Amino acid sequence: MCHVIVTCRSMLWTLLSIVVAFAELIAFMSADWLIGRAKPSSSEEVDNRTGGSQEPYRPTLGIYGRCTRISHMQFSRRDTLCGPYAENFSEIASGFWQATAIFLAMGIMILCTVAFVSVFTMCVQSIMKKSIFNVCGLLQGIAGLFLILGLILYPAGWGCQKAISYCGPYASAYKLGDCSLGWAFYTAIGGTVLTFICAVFSAQAEIATSSDKVQEEIEEGKNLICLL
Fold it and tell me: Which positions, given as ranges, span the membrane (predicted)?
């Protein structure tokens, strides 16, 4: 018989697992890892709405994507165009970024799997006498290690030609040059920290769903058990 068990700790772990997976996925897909040098608008480029010169634009560069601004001379306006600069894996700008993409993708796949499984832990808490919470916590720890490896290797690729074209000639491995870090990089770091927090917190979710109060509710024949 399936017992639906919901506790504050197990629900918090489930929500955090889902948030972490989405955060890492969005960061990986974003082009806002590096913010390039400002490209000032020429004196001839005028904002139609204000009549003044347009603000300098800073293009962004991701692991496999980029955002830049293109001109429409016939309309005297500029549009931002975002998309992948690499049509396939081998065209990613740096071997270090290729390794970063592999490690991040592996970590994100594990996190997405755990996030999917975590939804069903309300109804199924163990498989083959092994706690799903403990197994998921172990997987989250492994995913966190993959994410750390990817984030460590990423700055080593700042010396590639693609990064130099955005960050200037002084850019090199672990040196940003004229670039700055974008929100996607910080999101990936925050997601990695939360991944390890989730891995540790999974033990608390296991304790909460197997507590004496839960067992008492089961013995009373209740199928829906909600505890603080």
Answer: 12-35, 96-120, 132-154, 183-203
Crossing angle, helix 183-209 and helix 95-120, to 10 degrees?
30
pLDDT digits (tens, 9 = 90+) for 123-150: 777 777 788 889 999 999 999 999 999 9
CA gap 98, 157 in Å, rounded: 9
**Weakly modelled stretches of the chain, pLDDT under 70:** 1-3, 39-55, 71-79, 211-212, 214-215, 217-228
Please answer whether residues 166 and 59 qualify as being in contact, where contact means their C-beta atoms are separated by less than 8 angstroms: yes
Q: Please report the pLDDT score of residue 139 as a whole number.
A: 96
- Strands ordered across the beta sheet of 60-61: 77-84, 65-72, 60-61, 34-35, 180-181
Q: State the Cα–Cα distance between residues 98 and 149, nearest whole angstrom.
A: 12
Q: How far apart are CA 193 and CA 189, in angstroms?
A: 6
pLDDT score of 222: 63
The full set of domains in the chain, from first to last, is 4-37+56-225 (1.20.140.150)
